[in-house]
Design the sequence.
């Protein structure tokens, strides 16, 4: 009976490296599962009024088109500006920029287009700008 005894030598470094790589693999699989498994019952924010973004509306003055930009987040109007206002338009229509600033200030305070007072110097320009802002906000409204 000659039994041959075999001795297996394992280095401790190899065992530790193998255990660490197995643990990292398990953690990676768990993280991927959490990332890509869809969540059930995902609710839409009920207070959200707008889809965040920049929305534009075109105002035509004579033969010049002006873009009124409205920047919103989920529940606030953050900025209102005219994007392509050049010197020719400013010279021809000097009340456009002050009117936008006057209206924007009121909208920032109330976060609404209701009860906006018009500038005494330019009620028609004010109405055109308010209509453009309203059109831009309708594009970003949450349904």
Sequence:
């Amino acid at each position: 009976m000659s039994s041959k005894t075999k001795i297996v030598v394992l280095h401790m470094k190899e065992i530790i490296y193998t255990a660490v790589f197995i643990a990292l693999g398990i953690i990676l699989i768990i993280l991927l599962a959490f990332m890509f498994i869809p969540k059930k019952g995902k609710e839409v924010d009920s207070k959200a009024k707008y889809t965040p973004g920049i929305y534009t509306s075109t105002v035509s003055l004579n033969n010049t088109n002006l873009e009124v930009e409205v920047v919103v987040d989920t529940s606030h109007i953050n900025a209102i500006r005219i994007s392509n206002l050049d010197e020719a338009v400013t010279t021809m229509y000097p009340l456009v920029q002050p009117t936008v600033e006057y209206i924007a200030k009121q909208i920032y305070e109330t976060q609404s287009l209701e009860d906006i007072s018009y500038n005494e110097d330019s009620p028609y320009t004010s109405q055109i700008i308010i209509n453009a802002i309203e059109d831009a906000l309708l594009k970003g409204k949450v349904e």
Observations:
- The chain is about 45% helix and 15% strand.
